[in-house]
Specification:
Elements (H helix, E strand, L loop, with lengths): L1 H6 L6 H27 L5 H27 L4 H8 L4 H11 L9 H5 L1 H13 L4 H14 L7 H22 L10 H16 L17 H14 L5 H5 L7 E9 L2 E6 L5 H25 L8 H23 L10 H28 L1
Antiparallel strand pairs: 1-2
Helix pairs in contact: 2-15, 3-5, 3-7, 5-7, 5-8, 8-14, 9-10, 10-11, 11-13, 13-14, 14-15
Length: 365
Amino acid sequence: MISFASGLFYDAKLYDVIKDFSFFLKPILFIALGFLLISRITDKNFIFRALIYTAVISATIHLVELLIFTINHPFSVNRIRGDLGRDNFIELFALVLLFVKSTRVFYSEAILKRINIFKFILLVSFVFYFSRTMVISFFIVIIALNGYAKISSRGLIYITIFNLLTIALFTSLQFADLKRESKGVEGFFYKIKMAPSEIFSPDIDINTKNHRSLWDHWRAYEALKAIEGISDTKYKLGWLFGKGLGAQVDLGFEAPLDGKKFQYIPIIHNGYVYVIFKSGIIGLIIYLVFLLITYMQSYKQGNYHVSVINNFISGIALFFMLTSLIITGIYNSSDIIVFILGGLFALQFYYSNQHQTNEDRHIRN
């Protein structure tokens, strides 16, 4: 609503307005669809079966494609990611579920019998995505699903260990002589090494003929140009309300993106800056409040089923907090985890009411 209202004060093409509207509508629509679907079907645990089976099928296809690729091409991390996919969050969450024992109360007997086979297929596929985001997300979500993401003595210990290991990894990589052009696993570690500067350091040479060098700092550069765009608005009102639906980020030069050259782009990788650019600090506050409320679900009391679901919801919130820095978070057009989130809200509602009904019966008896 904020981005629609603020957009009325700026010139924008109708096509760009509609496109932005679809981006902002998508998470609302998917949460509602996930909630309604699980609310209507009899088998409430269907969402877990669907997630795991879909992930296993996807992973199997990925591994077959990988086998064909390695037969016909020399091994190259960048080429594998470019041709076979850069990530798959369905596989990520299914793998986490299979590793966390508390979630097995939601599985069918068929899944329990094949759990180790499914783990193996998903784990191998997971490794060959060579995705920094997937690796970090895996540990964040698995910590949350085990109930350690809450601010408690044990939770703080696990969070501190995770942070220290992450800092140690990035620090050690800074002293390693890694080359961008490396085609093997070294290329993957180079991407990990460059992750902080890619997000926070916007220093790029827009006149370079080596376009690949742009990507080491691209996310930060996009965010900087978006911030400059809202700073240029009259009375700096862009900071408060954003530039609205249809607003485009001026990159300052024609950048080679997806085989074409673009100077103006409607969406950037940094989800937080994206929200500010379209709907200002007011919009960002609303987005952060939503993520915080979603994360706080793990603090709610309930029976065993409710507790597991609450931890899962909290893990998804932390996942979106991370991915909002690098792939637009909840507004990522290819992400359907937000649909799973809607289904989990429905399960939370169902099992909470079931628990309350059982307590009422116990009191009456």
